[in-house]
Specification:
The chain is an all-alpha fold. It is built from four helices and no strands. It is globular, with a radius of gyration of 13 Å.
């Protein structure tokens, strides 16, 4: 699952509103929706802003996100 999908799932599961998270993350609402819908690439800065806005550690959404394709054994 892609990071934007993990973020969307977290927001929906916790009953949060997208505009609330965008505001807490200091990301313009239209830009936030483009990110969450996968229409725009999520930058590292925006990822960090969203984590801060949600009061989460920056590694919260990274579970199985950075698995190497060249994994041996």
């Amino acid at each position: 699952m892609k990071v934007h999908e993990r973020i969307r799932r977290y927001i929906e599961t916790n009953g949060l509103k997208m505009n609330y998270v965008a505001n807490k993350s200091s990301i313009e609402l239209k830009r936030f929706y483009r990110i969450i819908n996968g229409d725009s690439i999520l930058s590292a800065d925006e990822y960090e802003q969203i984590c801060i806005g949600l009061n989460l550690e920056t590694d919260f959404f990274k579970q199985k996100f950075l698995v190497s394709k060249n994994k041996t054994a």
